[in-house]
Design goal:
Layout lengths: L1 E5 L4 H12 L4 E5 L5 H6 L7 E5 L5 H9 L3 E6 L9 H6 L1 H20 L5 E7 L12 E2 L10 H20 L3 E6 L2 E2 L14 H10 L4 E3 L9 E2 H13 L7 E4 L7 H11 L5 E3 L11 E2 L2 H7 L7 H14 L5
Parallel strand pairs: 1-2, 1-4, 2-3, 4-5, 5-7, 6-13, 7-11, 8-10, 9-12
């Protein structure tokens, strides 16, 4: 028996792969990008439980081949095109966004419909709630959704496809809506261009550079990626689920000011330069995580300080200084 993880060499995907392997899963790590030196080094402690397959979710043959070689009993579909670098990218790559995020999902669901599958988990996003929310708002799984850009629309479409395929073909499905992750293995790739503010600033720290800060008071629901992966794996492995969608988040809003305070506690010599032109990620509301806690007993393990400390330590010892 094995668990298939698509997008398995990506930022969130690789942390899901590692967490699953640590929990005893045999994992098929499927991605259009080959497993490079960094990926293999990161997964070295669990290498005996991970099989790498390079393939394209838009190629049905690649997807079928991955399944034919392994007894797949669970699927985590994390592969996605996240075009949040610049508004122009949505114009330039409109069809690619739709193809990868919707057609790719349909290909995985078609595969799932022909397997004796225990559970199919779709990795969704807070983007489905909309990007014009009041930063003081709390987002519940049954909050009104307002997806407007192609990424958000395709993520919500894939949630609906996942639900309906499960109903039609008799396999369990669930979607996990993630908030802004940060942590080990966050890096630029062809399908993910904009990094988190904490990625940027911890990079400055490990390179002994000053950080530049603009607006320090608008928060986002940043979640340490090890907690993100643990939450996803908890949903995947739960004996039963009361819902078909869960928020996976730290459930708190973190401001740049709070991040700076933590960084200065860890590195008292850190220089902070006020720069009104510096633009971080837009503010975002926080997700409510009561459903995840009350139904499955999951709570995050890291607060902002411990997560940032752990991330900097990983950057320095790995080392990853980009």
């Amino acid at each position: 028996m094995a668990t298939l993880v698509t997008g398995g060499t990506g930022f969130v995907g690789i942390n899901i792969v590692k967490t699953l392997a640590q929990r005893g899963h045999d994992v098929v790590c499927f991605d259009v990008s080959a497993a490079d030196v960094l990926v293999r080094k990161y997964l070295k402690p669990v290498a005996e439980r991970v099989t790498f397959i390079q393939g394209d979710i838009l190629n049905k043959g690649d997807v079928e081949l991955a399944a034919s070689q392994h007894n797949i009993t669970k699927i985590v579909h994390a592969a996605a095109f996240t075009p949040n670098v610049a508004p122009s990218l949505e114009i330039e790559r409109s069809r690619a966004i739709v193809d990868i995020n919707v057609v790719g999902t349909a290909n995985l669901l078609e595969l799932a419909s022909r397997l004796s599958l225990e559970r199919f988990l779709y990795v969704s996003s807070e983007a489905v709630y909309g990007d014009t929310r009041d930063p003081e708002e709390t987002l519940y799984e049954d909050s009104t959704l307002d997806p407007r850009n192609l990424y958000a629309i395709t993520k919500y479409t894939s949630e609906m496809l996942t639900r309906r395929y499960g109903q039609l073909h008799g396999f369990q499905t669930v979607s996990a809506r993630l908030t802004s992750p940060f942590g080990p293995m966050e890096r630029v790739n062809p399908y993910r261009g904009r990094m988190s503010l904490i990625y940027e600033w911890t990079g400055n720290v490990v390179r002994s550079e000053p950080i530049r800060a603009g607006d320090r008071n608008t928060g986002r629901d940043y979640t340490y990626v090890l907690d993100t992966a643990a939450g996803v794996c908890t949903i995947l492995d739960a004996p039963s689920l009361s819902y078909d969608v869960y928020n996976v988040s730290a459930g708190r809003s973190v401001t740049p000011h709070e991040v700076i305070q933590v960084l200065q506690e860890l590195r008292p010599a850190l220089q902070v330069i006020d720069d009104p032109t510096h633009r971080g990620r837009p503010p975002g509301a926080k997700e409510d995580v009561a459903r995840l806690k009350e139904d499955l007993g999951f709570v995050v393990s890291f607060d902002l300080a411990s997560a940032t400390r752990d991330y900097i330590q990983w950057r320095e010892t790995f080392p990853f200084l980009d």
